[in-house]
Amino acid sequence: MSSTENNFPSIDRNQWESLVASTLKDDDPQSLNRLDEDGLEIEALYSIKSLDQRSDTSFPITRLPVDPMAHMAHGWDICQPVNAAGPAEETNRLILDELGDGVGSIWLEDLPTGDLATNLPVMMQDIILSAAGVNLDAGDNTMLHLAGFSDFAKSRGQRLSELRVFANLDPFSPDAALSFLDHGLNYLATADGEDIPLGLFRANGWGWHNRGMTAVQELAYVLASLTEIMRQGMVNSLDLSDLASLLSASVALPADLFEGIAKCRALRRGWGGIVDAFGLDPNLHRLFLQGAVSVRMFSQIDADVNILRTTTALLGGAIGGADQLSAHAHDCLGGTSASGRRLARMQQHLLIEECGLSRSLDPAGGAGFIEARSNQLADAAWCMFQKMEADGGAKAACRSGLFDRLAKKSAGRRHARLADGNLNLVGVNLQPDRRPIVPSLSRWKSVRRPAAAIEAIRLSALQNPPRILLLQRGTDLSSQLVKLRTLLAIGGVQPVQMRPIDINEQTIANSRPNLIILADSDFEALAASTQGHLKNLQEKGKVMSAKTLLNAPAPLEVLANMVNVCLLPYRNGEV
Question: Over the stretch 169-206, which tens digit does the pLDDT of each residue have?
């Protein structure tokens, strides 16, 4: 029966430490701590620094959404991606499906530039653009798309400023040209005020996250990008107050709920420091923040698990106070289904309407762990951002290739953790699913997903199944054999099991094995006759004990060699 007590005695840190010590007995409480990808220690028994203990008390801490009242009344803006690469009629149908289910904005991906004057009226048929928002992709054609929407608005007797169009120009995104910054600032300086969209620039942290950046690197990138845009605006004698109102940012939301909350809160604190440095009031210039669900964490193997990853990611953005949330369908890697797209948008309605997560501003405020983690990420990101500034800012970092080097190096380290068994992905290498998979679409090839390496192994094993004999003397299912079968299942490899005493020249000739794995013995422990039959294969390196395989520094590498897959591009962070 649940306790009805609602008043509890206060407890100090010494009492907590005594409780932890008694629970762990002789173990050190620090054994519960872990390091994140940025080398930051996440403490199980954490401490919160008061404001007078912090070195950054001069930085304003802004946690509120851009429009707090609207956020509480209606929730965040649900902005769902729509791939616009197909026929204009199909794009229109996809947009209407989203809007029909209560989506507030559309994120147009892969919008072609050819014949926009003809295609836009078809794409936007029956859509009231003053009510439905349109977010342009932060790609190299953004200025052309912006001009197309400006002409489209005029053809309807409207001006661009009357529509809810966000250009989201990011001069430092993975595929952008540095000249985009000058193009955007020149547009702002020369365009009629009625032709300026609600949002012109967006520091797209989501894009660099999907290329491999860690949380701290992503946040530092966003801060450096926003600062560079403001600085160049000042050089061009633009009004910084007006320019700040046209800036926004996106961050990637991982499956780690607390990480997503902390990233949103840490970014807003960093933005407060930037705005303050430019002499503006942070409370009057809040940053519009999009939280976009990470695609890097998705997998083609057991894609249904992506639904759970999306749910916790969205939850992190909602509690973190994002102004706008976006989620690709869980099956987007292989081609989105109608049910997948609907599920992605309805998850957000559930969080708004049934969970009521928008009814409280900064609902995580005061939670000890989240406060500590937010401060930790904010401090580390600010420190990296300051280093970028000292080295010349975002422009210099982009010219030198720093952003890409950071992303590749982090992606390579992430693959190394996966290869040596220190990174678990549910349905991929933890409780692996044996269902067949198909290659991901080419549009996602630039996303450096940890699961992609295992998917490559699975696809190769499916197309050219390796011939593997598993020799086991006994019938007991040992823990070593369980681990071995799990490893082979990760790669989609199905061995044929035999007893060593059944091995002879005929069985070797018939099976023509690529590899023989000794499940419960070493080669020297086999009978002399069995050794004789396997001698040639053993000399060619085609006989291996399960112990040797499982104790390899990177078992995944051994698995890849079985199916002739080279993991070097993954180790180098290139894919």
Answer: 999 999 888 888 999 999 999 998 889 999 999 999 99
Spatial contact of 130 and 163, defined as CB atoms under 8 Å apart: yes
Q: Which domains does the chain have, with CATH numbers?
A: 15-45 (no CATH), 75-395 (3.20.20.240), 462-571 (3.40.50)
CA dist 391 and 385 (Å) reads: 10
User: d(Cα 559, Cα 485) in Å, to the nearest integer?
Assistant: 12
CA 308 – CA 255 distance, rounded (Å): 8
Sheet holding 543-545, edge to edge: 496-498, 468-471, 515-518, 543-545
CA distances from 295 to 23, 38, 351, 538 (A): 39, 20, 20, 43
- Looking at residue 24, its pLDDT comes to 84
Q: Which amino acid is at 360?
A: S
Specify burial of residue 110 (Cβ count, 10 A radius: 0-12, 13-18, 19+).
Answer: middle
**Which pLDDT does position 60 carry in this prediction?**
55
CA distance 143 to 141: 6
What is the structure's pLDDT at 108?
A: 95
Do residues 455 and 299 lie in contact, with contact meaning Cβ atoms separated by under 8 Å?
Answer: yes
Whole-number pLDDT of residue 57: 45
Cβ neighbourhood burial of 183 (10 Å; 0-12, 13-18, 19+): middle
- pLDDT one-digit tens code per residue, 303-326: 999 999 999 999 999 999 999 999
Q: Which residues of the chain have pLDDT under 70?
A: 1-6, 8, 48-62
> What is the rounded distance in angstroms from the CA atom of residue 209 to the CA atom of residue 252?
6
What confidence score (pLDDT) does residue 177 get? 84
pLDDT of residue 1: 46
CA pair distance 181, 142, nearest whole angstrom = 12
The pLDDT score that the predictor gives to residue 426 is 92
Determine how β-strand 543-545 pairs with β-strand 199-204: unpaired
Q: Classify residue 39 as left (phi > 0), alpha (psi -120 to 50) or beta.
A: left
Rounded to an integer, what distance in angstroms lies between the CA atom of residue 92 and that of residue 95?
A: 5
Name residues whose C-beta falls within 8 Å of residue 533's C-beta, 6 or more positions apart in sequence: 503, 504, 505, 508
Question: Which residues are paired to 470 by β-bridges?
Answer: 497, 517
Instruction: Give the burial class of 2: count Cβ atoms within 10 A of its Cβ; 0-12 exposed, 13-18 middle, 19 or more buried.
Output: exposed
C-alpha–C-alpha distance, residues 276 and 279, integer Å: 5
Whole-number Å distance between alpha carbons of 483 and 500:
20
**Which of 541, 432, 437, 519 lies closest to 475, judged by CA?**
519
Angle at 304 between CA 300 and CA 307, to 5 degrees: 110
Nearest CA to 457 out of 498, 487, 480 is that of 487
Amino acid at 131: A
